[in-house]
Specification:
The complex is a heterodimer.
Chain A lengths: L1 H4 L3 E5 L3 H12 L5 E6 L36 E4 L3 E5 L4 E4 L4 E3 L2 E4 L3 E3 L5 H4 L4 E3 L3 H12 L5 E4 L3 H12 L4 E5 L6 H18 L3 E4 L3 E7 L2 E7 L4 E3 L2 E4 L3 E3 L11 E2 L2 E3 L5 E3 L5 E7 L4 E4 L7 E4 L2 H15 L14 E6 L2 E7 L6 E8 L4 E8 L2 E8 L5 H9 L20 E2 L14 E3 L16
Parallel strand pairs in A: 1-2, 1-7, 2-3, 7-21, 9-16, 10-11, 10-16, 11-12, 19-22
Antiparallel strand pairs in A: 4-5, 5-6, 8-17, 13-14, 14-15, 18-19, 20-21, 22-23, 23-30, 24-25, 25-28, 26-27, 26-29, 27-28
Chain B lengths: L6 H6 L8 H10 L2 E2 L5 E3 L2 H8 L4 E2 L28 H10 L15 H13 L6 E3 H6 L1 H11 L6 H14 L8 H24 L9 H7 L9 H17 L1 H14 L1 H9 L4 H11 L6 E6 L3 E3 L2 E3 L4 E4 L1 H4 L34 H18 E2 L2 E2 L19 E3 L2 E2 L2
Parallel strand pairs in B: 2-8
Antiparallel strand pairs in B: 1-2, 3-5, 4-11, 5-8, 6-7, 9-12, 10-11
Pfam families (chain B): p450
Family (chain B): Belongs to the cytochrome P450 family.
Organism (chain B): Kitasatospora kifunensis (Streptomyces kifunensis)
Chain lengths: ~450, ~400
């Protein structure tokens, strides 16, 4: 049986980070069969984190962020073509050009796309951008080069905050509009958001929280400014819509798989569920599009938008695609992500939104160097560092061992206060941008939403 | 089997310098081993890695229950290697400003041609000889010349600062012997003298156009205001000593290891692209820094079932972690193609080796030059005579026979 798994036909839909790393792992693990990679974008796999950082600063060109290859993957590449469906009975992927790709095993790694501005007419104005692809970044960087008088960033999640930071570093005037009470609260909670708000203000950002953008105004097809829900208005030549990501699952609507707006659900071994919650044995999923159960977080299904998760999950999925049951591995890595903005390195391990309280374990808010530890019902569930990323491995271990919260030891750089405060995690519904970490399982104090495709 | 509480005495015993690895295996068997002087020895990979990132572990000896002020010297404070954040970070960032990213990201890479030229000239100088001492003739002068140029120290002053450097290193040699106090006194004097010398050298560059790091320290202090004179002295002493007393061992350990493994040497001759991996494997297999003796527990720390009490000295035996079979497959095999080689040779965490990029580059260039230009190198003494220090471990001399030098 094991030998059968090393041959046959594997199709990977999604040719970005997760897709590429999965392909490399398949070959590393001895898969000698036919491998086909399908990608909607024309570019070969590239790295996205630099797009909102070095590329916008003009230090690296968008075309230069190609992902390094770990090895040859010997695949048939179908780039610039979108997959439109999966036929679960005939076991084939259908492409937009009508082509059908039969498979023995399928990996779905279609990731996410930028949530567009909801009013199509306004979104079409020249000067209105989203930022997800290399093409987006190249176009935006070019416009920033031209020296706009003001940039409006809609949504103060990580991407929006990084865009605002790059603009300020270029000396451009920036307005940030955020529906919630502070930046970054979707991922890190309100207590941390207060810190992020001070940071943006100190860097000269015109930060407007608790407001929504009610209109993007234009003249002759070009953006001229925006109006806010508090009645104020600004002039701006550029607006970047940073309202989070939409999971690319619509193409799976007729596949019979458990796909929806929150992703495609799978088991701990990356095997996709069908719509009845029954695990499939030949359809796997990895990266931003996956929803997977995690024992550290009460087996709730996690949806992540993290670089490291895409790599780790792709490796597990690929391993499990070519190995028989007893040798299969669970995807158990602790979520982690980083950001650089306003001169600071921010890094997170665990799930900060899975918390009720937060406490500074090391360092100082005033001096902008700290480790904040998050707890949920008396155990440590996350840690976020500001310019102190090198300690996080320790906190990751505390998360993995469900260490008691709050931590009570004194270490290097002891904090001024050891009193936990509410972490103030908002209901995702109030956010204008999506959280980068979301728990999508059932919690008694959260209402569940039922979504119907096409209805 | 002898008791685990004397392991550190046996490891530091000069008689075991040539092959400490069986002792390390014994250490790993014992887990975290309390020593008869109250210090704790850690030799397993995962536990060392854990302690590197544990904020309850200090690098500052002042936090020990039995105060230990080795390293202190009149007029010159302890360098950042022996301080904790935020002081450590402030000093290290200032030292990094002219050396690495973000302000000097190209610095190390831009030295490639210069290092290759120095290596080439040293090998040219071996023409006509059939016996060489790899240490005296190559592995020592190469990194000394490099660090002198980088810092802006006159190469001809080497005899002066070499004596000081030897004394400083002897000072933090943790071998329990007859007269540690005398050794430490000599070390302090040497640090002070070396600090004065480097401080004056830096001062002489003030306001002058110069590319070296000492000049940068006084002329481009950056937003944090730059070093005070004593801080500059302490930092410069650290960089000058660490900049060559470790790389000499890296180069010598590499050559010794390759000559003991002719098949690996052949492989590298055929596939020069393996050189970066080969250097990493030497850093795992025969690391130039064998152990770190200066960590201290800030609070009771439980690790691997042992509670290390607050204030107790912690000794991390990197070379033992690098041979831990729970982390590396066939750990005692030298394999220059080894994948997944996250060794402890440069440490990890906030104190991870400041000069690692330079050491890697020097090691790669030195080995490439030696492999391709020395004809028929053979070991004349195996094991060779080792230097005294169990911390910075490497041969004092490595006599080789060679059949010639290629162009």
């Amino acid at each position: 049986m094991s030998d059968d798994l090393k041959s046959g036909r594997i199709v990977i839909v999604g040719a970005s980070l997760a897709g590429l790393r999965a392909a490399e792992t398949l070959r590393d693990e001895g898969f000698v069969g036919q491998l086909t990679m399908v990608g909607e974008e024309r570019l070969p796999p590239y790295d996205r984190p630099p797009l909102s950082k070095q590329v916008l600063l003009g230090r690296v060109r968008a075309e230069e962020t190609r992902l390094p290859r770990r090895r040859e993957v010997d695949a048939q590449w179908k780039l610039g073509v979108r997959a439109t469906g999966v036929d679960p009975i005939d076991q084939c992927v259908v492409l937009a050009n009508g082509e059908e790709l039969p498979f023995d095993r399928l990996l779905i790694a279609t990731g996410t796309r930028a949530r567009p501005w909801p009013k199509a007419e306004e979104a079409a104005l020249e000067g209105v951008f989203t930022l997800r692809t290399a093409e987006d970044a190249a176009a935006l960087a070019e416009r920033l080069d031209a020296g706009p008088r003001r940039v409006l960033v809609i949504g103060a999640g990580f991407t929006g905050s990084e865009i605002a930071s790059a603009c300020r570093e270029r000396g451009l005037a920036v307005t940030v509009a955020e529906r919630g009470p502070a930046p970054l609260i979707g991922a890190l909670g309100g207590a941390f958001g207060a810190f992020a708000a001070k940071l943006q203000l100190a860097h000269g950002v015109d930060l407007r929280c608790g407001v929504t953008v009610t209109a993007l105004n234009g003249r002759d097809g070009r953006l001229t400014g925006a109006e806010f829900s508090d009645g104020s208005r600004i002039e701006a030549d550029i607006a970047v819509v940073a309202l989070g990501a939409v999971r690319n699952t619509e193409w799976l609507a007729d596949s019979g798989l458990a796909a929806g707006p929150r992703g495609l659900a799978c088991d701990a071994g990356c095997r996709a569920f069908n719509m009845y919650g029954i695990v499939t044995d030949n359809v796997f999923v990895a990266g931003d599009v996956a929803r997977f159960p995690h024992p550290l977080f009460e087996y709730q299904l996690l949806s992540l938008e993290h670089w490291g998760n895409a790599v780790a999950q792709a490796e597990v999925a690929a391993h499990n695609m070519v190995n028989p049951g007893p040798q299969r591995r669970p995807h158990l890595s602790v979520p982690a992500f980083w950001s650089s903005q306003f001169g600071l390195n921010i890094k997170s391990v665990g799930v900060p939104t899975f918390s009720d309280h937060v406490v500074i374990a090391q360092g100082s808010v005033e001096e902008r160097r700290l480790v904040a530890v998050y707890g949920y019902r008396g155990r440590i569930t996350a840690a976020v560092s500001v310019n102190r990323a090198k300690w996080l491995e320790h906190y990751q271990r505390l998360i993995e061992t469900a260490a008691p919260f709050p931590p009570e030891w004194d270490g290097v750089e002891p904090p001024v206060s050891r009193t936990p405060v509410p972490s103030d995690v908002p209901d995702p519904k109030v956010l204008s941008h999506g959280p980068t970490v979301a728990l999508t399982g059932h919690l008694p104090d959260r209402r569940l939403t039922l979504k119907h495709w096409g209805g | 089997m002898a008791a685990a509480d004397t392991l550190f005495r046996r490891i530091t015993d000069y008689a075991n310098r040539a092959d400490p690895y069986p002792l390390y295996a014994e250490l790993r068997e014992h887990g975290v081993a309390r020593q008869d002087d109250g210090s704790y020895l850690v030799g397993t990979y995962h536990e060392i890695a854990e302690l590197f990132h544990d904020p309850r572990v200090s690098s500052d000896r002042r936090n020990r229950t039995v105060p230990d002020d080795s390293g202190e010297a009149p007029g010159i404070p302890v360098a950042f290697i022996g301080r904790d954040d935020p002081e450590h970070e402030r000093l290290r960032n200032m030292a990094m400003r002219p050396f690495g990213p973000p302000h000097a990201a190209e610095r190390v890479d831009s030295m490639h041609g210069e290092i290759a030229q120095i290596a080439g000239e040293l090998i040219d100088g071996l023409r006509g000889r059939d016996r060489i001492d790899l240490v005296e003739d190559f592995a020592y002068p190469l990194p000394v010349t490099v660090i002198c140029r980088l810092l802006g120290v006159p190469r001809e002053d080497e005899p002066r600062f070499h004596v000081w450097a030897e004394a400083v290193i002897a000072g933090f040699d943790p071998t329990p012997d007859s007269d540690p106090a005398e050794r430490q006194r000599t070390a302090m004097q040497a640090r002070s003298a070396m600090g004065e010398y480097l401080g004056e050298l830096a001062e002489s560059r003030r306001g002058k156009q110069s590319e070296d790091m000492l000049a940068a320290f006084v002329n481009d202090p950056g937003p944090s205001g730059g070093f005070t004179r004593p801080e500059l002295m302490a930092t410069s002493v650290l960089l000058l000593i660490a900049g060559h007393e470790t790389t000499v061992n890296l180069i010598t350990n590499s050559v010794l290891t390759l000559l003991r493994h002719p098949e690996a040497l052949e492989l590298l001759r055929d596939k020069p692209e393996l050189m970066p991996r080969a250097v990493e494997e030497v850093l795992r297999y025969e690391p130039p820094v064998q152990l770190l003796p200066q960590r201290t527990a800030l609070t009771d720390i439980e690790i691997a079932g042992v509670t290390i009490p607050k204030g107790a000295p912690l000794i991390l035996v990197l070379a033992s972690g690098n041979r831990d079979p729970r982390r590396f497959q066939e750990p005692d095999r030298f394999d220059p193609t080894r994948p997944d080689n996250q060794h402890l040779g440069f440490g990890s965490g906030v104190h991870s080796c400041f000069g690692a990029p330079l050491a890697r580059l020097e090691g790669q260039i030195a080995l490439t030059a030696l492999i391709h230009r020395l004809d028929g190198p053979r070991l004349l003494q195996d094991p060779p005579e080792y230097r005294r220090s169990p911390v910075l471990r490497g041969p004092r001399h490595l006599p080789l026979a060679i059949s010639g030098v290629r162009d």
